[in-house]
Each structure stands twice: as C-alpha cells, then as structure tokens.
Amino acid sequence: MAEDLVLEKCDLELEVNGRDHHTADLCRDRLVVRRGQPFWLTLHFEGRSYEASVDSLTFSAVTGPAPREEAGTKARFPLASAVEEGAWTAVAMDQQDGILSLQLSTPANAPIGLYRLSLEASTGYQGSSFVLGHFTLLFNTWCPADAVYLDSEEERQEYVLTQQGFIYQGSVKWIKSIPWNFGQFEDGILDICLTLLDMNPKFLKDACRDCSRRSSPVYMARVVSAMVNCNDDQGVLLGRWDNNYKDGISPMFWIGSVDILRRWKTSGCQRVKYGQCWVFAAVACTVLRCLGVPTRVVTNFNSAHDQNSNLLIEYVYDKFGEIQRDKSEMIWNYHCWAESWMSRPDLQPGYDGWQALDPTPQEKSEGTYCCGPVPVRAIKEGDLSTKYDAPFVFAEVNADVVNWIMQEDGSMCKSTNNSQTVGMKISTKSVGRDEREDITHTYKYPEGSPEEREAFKRANHLNKLTDKVETGVAMRVRVAQSVSVGSDFDVFAHITNNTAENLTCRLLLLARTVSYNGVLGPECGTKDLLNLSLEPFSEKSIPLRILYEKYCECLTESNLIKVRGLLMEPAANNYLLAERDIYLENPEIKIRILGEPKQNRKLVAEASLRNPLTMPLLGCTFTMEGAGLTEEQKIMDVPDPVEAGEEVKVRVDLLPCHVGRHKLVVNFDSDKLKAVKGFRNIIIGPA
C-alpha cells in the first residue's frame, strides 16, 4: 500500500499571479487575485510524488467567520481534469517529480474578501489535511462574466488601476482641478478596506449573510457609501461645514485618501476629522477601486439639496437682496459624489453601467446615511422609482429655483433669475489624460428637447414643464478676467433694456464670501444706485470694486465670492436677480524633479511657491503624497515669516520607484493662504 502523500510546501506564485491579475502592487507578500480568472499554485511533496491513480486531492476555500456552502462562503472541490465554468475548480497543469503545478479557478460571482485555502490528501482510507495559505479575492473588471466587467482596457486602467487623479471644484464659470492621491495599492490600504467591511453594521449584525452578499457590487457600493461617513457607525470621516476645524484637519488640507484611511485604522477605527463632499467621494473611490470596482469621482456644479423631494428650492429675499430665514435647502456651488460601473440584475433591463453613489451624509436611505447606487440612466429618464435614492439625485441635477422678494407688508413677489440653473458642467477626469470630461449629457437630455420634457413628465417635475416668462430687461454679473487671491478687482452688473420704454430702476449690488455649500460669509463690497436710468434698447455695465482688505479675513478655503445683483423697477413692481460665484486663483506651486527618473534611482523633489500677497505669511507648511515618499517626509514646516513677494522652497528625497507613471501631489498651507495644490507627473524609465 502506498505511503501517505506529504506536502512539504505550497508556493502561491505571487509574481506570476500578481502580473496576470493586475495585482502586482498588492502581491508583494500575500496572494491577491481577481474572481472568474484562474491563478497558479505549485505543490511540493516530500518522499513521493502525487499519483492520480492512488491519491485523491480535495481543496477547500472558505471566507468569513461562519462559512457555509449554501451561502457561497465555503467551497469544496476535487482536483479535476478540466475547468468548469462558473465553479470553483482545480486542474493539474504540469508535474515533475514531487512538484505539481495547478490552476485554481473561482466563480465570477464569488463573494470577495479574505479566503483560507486548504487541501485534503487521501490515499486509500488514510488522509491528511494541510493549510495551503490565504488569498484575497477581488472583483474582476477584466472578466466578461463579472458584474463589474468593462470592455475598454483604457477605462479599466483608469477606473481600477490608476492611483492618482483630479477632482473638480471652483464655480461653474471657473472650474478648478484639484489633484488627488487615491493610493488604493499603497501599503496597508487593502487591509484597511477589508477592516472597513468588517466594521459595517450589517456584518456586526449578521456576519454570515453580509459575507455572502459581498458577491454583489451593488451591495458593496451601498456598504462603502455608508461606511465612509461616521453618522450611523464607526465609519471613516466626520463631516463639518462651519469653517471651524481647530480640533482636526480642514477638509481642504487633504491631498489624498491614504493618510485619512491610515489615521482611521491606527486610531482604532475612530472617525477622522474632517471631511466634505469631495473628501467623502474620493475615499469611497479609493476603497471601491481597491476592491476592484471601476469607480470615478464626479462634480455637479450648482447642485441642489432638496430635503422635501418637491424638486423646488425656494429662496426668500428682503428688498435689500439679503436672504431671509435660515434654510437647509439650498444650492451648493458644487457637490461631488462617486460613480461605479456595474450591472443591475435587481432592476429592469437598460440600467447597467455607471451608478451614482454619494457617501456625504445628507439624507437617510432605508434608515442609514448613504445614497445609491442609482443608475445614471434612470436619472436621465426621470425614472424616480428606481433603487436606490433616485429622487434625491434627480433633484441634485434638476431642481427648479424660485426666488421670492418679501415686501414691507409681508407679501411675496416672484423674481426672475436666469443665472441659477441647477446641474451644470457635471465633470470627471478624462480617461488616460489629465483633462476634464463633461458628462452632463449622461444625466440630462438637451435643454428644451422633447426627451427632456418626457423625463420631466415621468418624474412629475411640473415646475419645469411651465414655459419660462421672457422679460424685457435682462441682467447678468460679469468679471473681466481671472482673479487671483490678494488682488483688488472689478465685477460688473451688465443690464440690457430690450423695451421701447425709458425705465427708472434701483440697483443693489452685494458681494459676500461664500463656502462651496452655499453658506454666505460677511459682506466684502456693496453698491446701491437709487435712480438708475435705462434708455430704450440700451446696455449698461455698472462696476463694483472688490478690495483684498475687505475679503482677506473672511475668504473661506473655497476661495469663492458670491456677487448678487437685484434690479427693482418700482413702477411695475418688477424684480430681477442675477448672481455669479467668482473663484479666486491661488498662486502656482512649482515642482521640479532633480536626478534621472530611472528605475531604482534616488530622486529629489523640490516644491516652491512665491508669496503673492502684500503681507508676510506665517505658519507655512508643505504636505506631499504619492510617488516614493516615506511617512515622515510628508509634512515639512517652513521658517516664519515668508515675506511679501518672497519665494519659499522645500526639498524631499524620493525612494526608488518601479517603471511607469507616478504622480506627486503637494499642498501648501499658511495663515493667509490656504489649501494651495500642485502636482507633478513623474515618468520612471528602465535603468
């Protein structure tokens, strides 16, 4: 009788599997593979070789604390002669003496997560079992049978593998790109993402059911959306919007997700202070890309926050153009969320593809602060019964704005305002390029088109179906050129009288600093013309000078000033509103790379910035994230003061990087100049 088969060791073939599964950055000391695709395994036996006629090999793969075959979290499968589609299989590919090369295949709908792989080897009636090792299974956008399959290799590279990108901020007329280090393959991030899944309330309540449902990207996206904020759980980020961040870190200060996720983990999963919409969206993007779900961050300019789902945002002003009543319903300058690519077998056909999900805590969804995933196509079609949270997202891009002027007797008069269109310039980073892509057309049909009217009818958006009233007088707010922080500048109320009448009006111009979520700060410029004469068929431009000394103390980190014009024609009791959000440009951070960018060579990064203000800067720091940085190199203080016009420089050593494209992201902060961002692409060539 043959002696027992004894396993000496199991080689998980990290290098070849990492290359085949696009997980090389994760496979340095562990096996990480993608589902629905075979991976290699080499068994080394001692004493004697495996004999198919004598030995029986059975494999077992389990995930979660209570694995069960019926839940999909446990699989037992024998060594087979051929791969069976959609099942766990092991096939012998080669045998030489005591070495057996195998390919293991996983189903394209297996739950993702950490698995333990073991082997039972039996010879006759005797047997022994061996633990072969652990592996992490991820979603697979390269596998046609996976729910996250994308057929474009360029898009797979961008939305799963690219570790840096841009997030769009500013205002609809001046869109600003902010570099961001997603860093989904940096050290420890995968473990943190798995911890995040195990901290979610659904896992804590019923771990077996939660692990089973990890086969679905729809379920995973919903869990991540809830766990990135900490409103219902031990989630990652605490949101704050009042410009008071002394006991934490200002949301504008972050330049990547890695630092945030590591802080959460090292603090014992205590919430990290503070986040705002782009930070929540970017961290969700990091986690989902890490798990293998194609994901991108999108920005919606003029984004509506509609609490009562009536698709209407109503503002009440007094006759001086000041907003009355503190209202939580408002228009945000911009709002960021994430989109993930997946099929939707839980919905009617036609709703596969990009799904919007929003981890910023705004409204509860099924009792939890999360939002989505909802098909972007459903938003475009006005199909508001679609899971999840379609009415809220539809309102963000389509709500109507109504402005009321409160008279002295308390009565209300409706005002015309054509400068406030909700849902504009919806933006994301282009595939493979550092450019902005406008994806508004994926959310909305062209304005005034029959398809748009049909979508509004379907959504019961009655306000939008009424024809707009054309007025004989038009007004818009203009700014002459791009405006820099520290400068004085002019804005203009440009008024057109298209009637044959001579009109006498009152014009109020008011400038106030504003946060990106629409909350107004102090006044920084005003003009009140009591008797403005408008000749028939004429145009007029009325200037308002805005001085740095007036806005310097109250400009928020959003770098925005809202200029509002109210034109009143007392004789006809007509009111016309126009407004413009002006983004003030920060100075440029210059980044130089010193040394030859080749594999395994040491490089030095130099970042510099010139103080553009007429006064010194105090408390200056540079923060860096990205290519070749060690932990302690990330924050560098600059000696005080940095005088007006002075250039300040810092240098940092970069660790050797592998061949390919890397990005360095830099943030500069000081007492008067905040959250200045810069980036540099570094192309590393072979040695």
UniProtKB/TrEMBL annotation:
Spell out the InterPro entries in the cross-references: Ig-like_fold, Ig_E-set, Papain-like_cys_pep_sf, Transglutaminase, Transglutaminase-like, Transglutaminase-like_sf, Transglutaminase_animal, Transglutaminase_AS
Against SUPFAM superfamilies, the record matches this protein to: Cysteine proteinases, E set domains, Transglutaminase, two C-terminal domains
| Any single GO BP term | proteolysis
Q: List the SMART domains.
A: TGc
Subunit structure, per the record? Monomer. Interacts with phospholipase C; promoting alpha-1 adrenergic receptor signaling. Interacts with PLCD1.
Concerning PANTHER family, the annotation shows: PROTEIN-GLUTAMINE GAMMA-GLUTAMYLTRANSFERASE, PROTEIN-GLUTAMINE GAMMA-GLUTAMYLTRANSFERASE 2
Protein's name in the database:
Protein-glutamine gamma-glutamyltransferase 2
